[in-house]
Amino acid sequence: MFDISRATLFRWEREGLISGPPRDWRNWRLYTAENVEQIKQVMQGRAEVA
User: Fold this and answer.
1) Quick one: which of 26, 50, 2 has its CA closest to 18?
2) pLDDT tens, residue by residue, 2-45
3) Cβ atoms of 42 and 16 closer than 8 Å
């Protein structure tokens, strides 16, 4: 969906740029539509800075 690494997503989550997604029984992240919108906003903001 997005051309970013897992490490980048996890870093953005740690930094508070995106909210932590819910997890399933295996503790895998389940990104919601809200998370996807947050990721889009972060990516757009970084593109404007670059």
Assistant:
1) 2
2) 899 999 999 999 999 999 999 999 999 999 999 999 999 999 98
3) no
Q: How confident is the model at residue 2, as a pLDDT?
A: 85
Tokens describing residue 43: 């990516």
- Residue 29: what are its φ and ψ, rounded to 5°? -70, 135
d(CA 23, CA 46): 27
Instruction: Name the β-bridge partners of 23.
Output: 29
Query: What is the value of pTM for the model shown?
Result: 0.81
Torsion angle defined by CA atoms of residues 32, 37, 34 and 14, in that order, rounded to the nearest 10 degrees: 80
How far, in Å, CA of 41 to CA of 23, rounded?
Answer: 22
